Backbone:
């Protein structure tokens, strides 16, 4: 959005969401205003070929977060900390008590509404707040904006958001009323059909069984990804194993749906490691008829008919459907397997909330943990509902105070559950990979450690390209430096990345074999992107770290500790790298110690040990519930 657009006086068309129901409306408006913008896609446009066709025919272009640096954090902060709860309380509680009653008929537990809030945040509130804030930014450059909202509730968001006078430049076309009417009439019927598709999907995926299974009990269940063992980083899947109750042959490995990696499957079988594919468990026919057909589909259809023509309530019906469907899948797993303690991994959505509901009812315990350096509030860490949630240090405990209010206990275990303990042992022994031990005799070694990127995200592909270009520039400026690039993803399989590097340049290494935790002790300096986990891990290991943040984090948590820690552009990054390489002051020893203690507890090689202790304490609570003199486990979790 540059100066050229500032001078435009023609109306700018902005469509909040491209949905099939209102297709005639936004296509006609796009032709009338000769293109414009849209903010998100509807479910009907998931195929890339359809998206390309739509954008080509209409001239509409998608607005993304990267076009307005910094607003992603504002949008998420507003939605998570205030707007979602306010909108739920003001709208749903007053006008949709039948919907709340519907949820409680499935499970009479207070966390059902928490799951509903989480589903509403993801499906509705966050996209709506994003649209409103983007309109505010567009209003800086356009005198008139023609806005096509996805529903008629946009007005209710205006008092909740800091829009200033921007809304005066926005008008809603009259034809929108027709599109809104279509949605109100057909949306309810569509929801009933959507619920039936959910049932058909489950039926085709799992099949039916006539008998009711007898649940197998075990001590510990462990959440596992569908892709199986991360063979290039096996410690991600084995970090918690020991020779007691957490031995691999004693832990039930719960695959979220279906195990895709045959190598992992064969390993589990050959090593006698118990595992279950949750998405393959057949449905007992009695449960199918009662729970899915009568209660789920019948209940949704009844509600949809009752709310026929009321677009307001349809907004809440979709999230309610998601909550109940997630609950059904969790109940099916409970029919077959009932661990006393369940360990969730990088799991922050509805599924972990409904699991905690089920475990709470039978006095089991769920444990979650923070897998990354949380330096700002964002979607995936809202409405956390594990019984026990493990964080790195006091910084995270304070930062996530609101997000963890539904957890019964917060345990501080330290940073680096996946592998930083290994780095600690390397540092203590002075061990570095042999290749880099030789290089250190002639060069200083700088690590360029990026993170994952995606479209419409706080780290984008273009930012990652500029990050790698900065690595090349550093190597060219300093002939006594070797730059080691350790990709996090598979970007070097994509066109455009490998071409950045000259194969004859021997002082740039793209490291694909050594793990980050083995590599850190070999580095004299690290620069990483935005605010990723590896930065804190480097600081804890005693290595200077510089963060390159072009995403506009408004209050970067490490910026407060010293001028060298954060660069806001590639040019600034080069200047700060030069400063560190020239031996100028980085940060005071006392400040460095504070960062390590406050943000990640202690770098002592005992993070996993502390995590295991949390698991064993929880297991002891569950086992002792059989003793009548003990309080139930869910009342004693706060002692962990």
Residues:
């Amino acid at each position: 959005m540059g100066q050229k657009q500032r001078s435009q006086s023609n109306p700018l068309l902005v469509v909040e969401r491209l949905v099939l129901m209102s297709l005639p409306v936004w296509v006609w408006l796009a032709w009338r205003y000769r293109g414009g913008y849209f903010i998100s896609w509807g479910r009907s446009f998931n195929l890339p070929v359809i998206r390309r066709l739509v954008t080509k025919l209409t001239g509409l272009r998608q607005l993304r977060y990267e076009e307005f640096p910094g607003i992603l954090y504002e949008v998420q902060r507003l939605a998570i900390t205030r707007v979602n709860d306010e909108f739920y309380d003001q709208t749903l509680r007053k006008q949709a008590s039948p919907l709340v009653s519907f949820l409680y008929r499935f499970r009479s537990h207070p966390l059902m509404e928490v799951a509903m809030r989480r589903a509403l945040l993801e499906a509705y509130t966050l996209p709506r707040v994003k649209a409103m804030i983007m309109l505010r930014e567009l209003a800086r450059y356009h005198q008139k904006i023609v806005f096509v909202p996805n529903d008629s509730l946009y007005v209710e968001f205006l008092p909740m958001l800091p829009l200033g006078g921007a809304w005066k430049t926005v008008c809603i076309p009259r034809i929108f009323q027709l599109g809104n009417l279509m949605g109100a009439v057909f949306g309810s019927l569509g929801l009933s059909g959507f619920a039936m598709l959910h049932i058909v999907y489950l039926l085709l995926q799992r099949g039916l069984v006539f008998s009711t299974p007898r649940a197998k009990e075990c001590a510990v269940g462990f959440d596992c990804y569908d892709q199986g063992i991360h063979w290039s980083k096996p410690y991600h899947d084995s970090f918690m194993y020991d020779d007691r109750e957490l031995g691999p042959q004693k832990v039930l490995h719960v695959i979220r749906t279906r195990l895709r990696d045959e190598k992992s499957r064969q390993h589990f079988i050959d090593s006698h490691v118990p595992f279950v594919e949750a998405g393959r468990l057949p449905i007992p026919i009695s449960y199918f008829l009662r729970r899915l057909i009568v209660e789920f589909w019948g209940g949704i259809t009844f509600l949809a008919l009752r709310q026929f023509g009321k677009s307001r309530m349809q907004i809440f019906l979709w999230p309610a459907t998601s909550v109940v469907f997630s609950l059904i899948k969790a109940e099916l797993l409970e029919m077959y397997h009932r661990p006393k303690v369940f360990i969730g991994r990088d799991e922050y959505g509805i599924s972990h909330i409904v699991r905690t509901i089920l475990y709470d009812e039978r006095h089991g315990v769920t444990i979650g943990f923070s897998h990354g350096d949380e330096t700002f509030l964002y979607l995936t860490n809202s409405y956390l509902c594990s019984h026990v949630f493990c964080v790195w240090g006091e910084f995270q405990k304070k930062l996530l105070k609101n997000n963890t209010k539904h957890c019964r206990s917060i345990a501080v275990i330290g940073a680096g559950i996946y592998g930083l303990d290994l780095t600690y042992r390397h540092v203590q022994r002075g061990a570095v990979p042999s290749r880099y031990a030789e290089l250190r005799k002639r060069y200083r070694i700088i690590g360029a450690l990026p993170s994952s990127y995606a479209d419409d995200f706080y780290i984008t592909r273009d930012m990652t390209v500029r990050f790698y270009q900065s690595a090349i520039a550093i190597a060219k400026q300093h002939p006594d430096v070797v730059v080691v690039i350790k990709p996090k993803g598979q970007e070097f399989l994509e066109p455009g990345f490998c071409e950045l590097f000259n194969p004859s340049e021997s002082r740039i290494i793209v490291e694909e074999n050594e793990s980050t935790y083995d590599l850190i002790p070999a580095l004299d300096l690290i620069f990483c992107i935005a605010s990723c986990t590896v930065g804190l891990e480097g600081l804890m290991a005693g290595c200077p770290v510089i963060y390159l943040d072009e995403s506009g984090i408004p209050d970067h948590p490490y910026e407060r500790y010293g001028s060298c820690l954060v660069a806001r552009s590639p040019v600034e990054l080069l200047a700060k790298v030069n400063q560190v390489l020239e031996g100028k002051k980085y940060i005071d020893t006392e400040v460095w110690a504070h960062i390590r203690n406050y943000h990640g507890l202690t770098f002592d090689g005992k993070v996993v040990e502390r995590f295991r202790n949390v698991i064993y304490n929880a297991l002891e609570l569950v086992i002792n519930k059989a003793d009548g003199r003990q309080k139930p486990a869910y009342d004693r979790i706060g002692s962990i």
